[in-house]
Specification:
The protein has 261 residues and is an alpha/beta fold. Helices cover 28% and strands 21% of the residues. The protein has seven helices and 13 strands. The strands form three sheets. A six-stranded mixed beta sheet has the order 8-7-9-10-11-12, with helices on both faces. The protein has a five-stranded antiparallel beta sheet with strand order 4-3-2-1-5, with no helix packed on it. 41% of the residues are buried.
Amino acid sequence: MEFEIGDLVTRKSYHDDIVFQIINIEENIVYLKGQNVRLLADSPKEDLNHYDEKKEDTEEETFLERIKPEVVLDRNDYFYLPGKILHVDSDQGYLTRCLKYYEDMNIWAIGVCEKENVVPSRIRDLLEEYNPNIVVITGHDACYKKNGNMKDIKAYKNSENFANSIKEARKYEKSHEKLIIIAGACQSDYEELIRAGANFASSPKRINIHALDPAIVAARVSLSEITKDIDLKGILDTTKYGKDGIGGIITKGTMYVGYPR
């Protein structure tokens, strides 16, 4: 079976559960990136099936329909200033999708594509330049059980980089309400990211998360009023895998409401 870079495929040994895009091929090894899930993987060619792009993905379509803009604001008398978002992502494709989502939600957002191991040294400069209310720090991660205990951050591909980025961001702004930090990716060390200072982090159950999940959380916080506590459970329920994929703490929202319009 012939494969080319850009083809969509699934893995037989995983019961074709996740759709991947081929990003590189080296002899018999094919390197993959999740089409909708923030996951990098590799596979021998013989374990792959071609995925028909025309095949209806009911689950994904239902999810995308569920997260469409749904915020109802009284624009007759009031005006609204949603929180500004800085989204730092190691994956340009996922970043583009997230920025499109913010645009659909009418939220000001700036995107920066940067590798996970570089973000700790850059995050403060980015925060000073853009002065956001919310910062998303995401990309790719993985839990390698063979490298040690799941409670050891060294057993994760990028959790330590995410934690160091969070700590640097907290040096810039200590208050969890003045700067909302959303961090992590697939299978990240949730507890350590929260301890480092994140408001929201993945992944409580060490599962994969959807490419849009960090943006969904950021958008909901951006559109939550600054005088009220966020609807923590409601925000998490909006994400693809709920509290298993992302968890967080209750804080105030970031949106100002003004009058008259």
